[in-house]
């Protein structure tokens, strides 16, 4: 599977529109989690895998490659980190995280 990039057909769309490429990329298993974890700070491969409990090394390697080709993640001195575009994307996700906290506060407590 190729990295979804603007101007190319992606899963669910042949239009090449940038939003469709972004939705395809972020809709892949673990992509958003990896971005969110790297928003917390740089991480080595092993650290990132530990932060993303249950993520296999092969899937992590694949997703990191896709996110690097999309110019959202790079390798820095401290390990993997977000690029300026990756940081911007994470910042734009913050309102969604705030909404999720509000939503969670309105739901009944889970049964044990």
TrEMBL record:
CDD domains: HTH_ARSR (cd00090). One of its GO terms (biological process) is regulation of DNA-templated transcription. Residues 17-108 form the HTH hxlR-type domain. Gene3D superfamilies: Winged helix-like DNA-binding domain superfamily/Winged helix DNA-binding domain. SUPFAM superfamilies: Winged helix' DNA-binding domain (SSF46785). GO terms for molecular function: DNA binding. The keyword Transcription applies. Keywords: DNA-binding, Transcription, Transcription regulation. It holds the Pfam family HxlR. InterPro entries: ArsR-like_HTH, HTH_HxlR, WH-like_DNA-bd_sf, WH_DNA-bd_sf. This is Helix-turn-helix transcriptional regulator.
């Amino acid at each position: 599977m190729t990295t979804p990039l603007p101007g190319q057909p992606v899963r669910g769309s042949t239009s090449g529109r940038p939003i469709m490429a972004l939705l395809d990329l972020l809709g892949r298993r673990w992509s958003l989690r990896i971005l969110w974890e790297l928003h917390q700070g740089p991480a080595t491969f092993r650290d990132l895998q530990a932060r993303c409990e249950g993520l296999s090394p092969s899937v992590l390697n694949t997703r990191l490659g896709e996110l690097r080709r999309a110019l959202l993640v790079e390798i820095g001195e401290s390990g993997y980190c977000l690029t300026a575009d990756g940081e911007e994307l994470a910042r734009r996700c913050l309102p969604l995280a705030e909404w999720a906290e509000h939503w969670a506060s309105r739901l009944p407590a889970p049964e044990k």
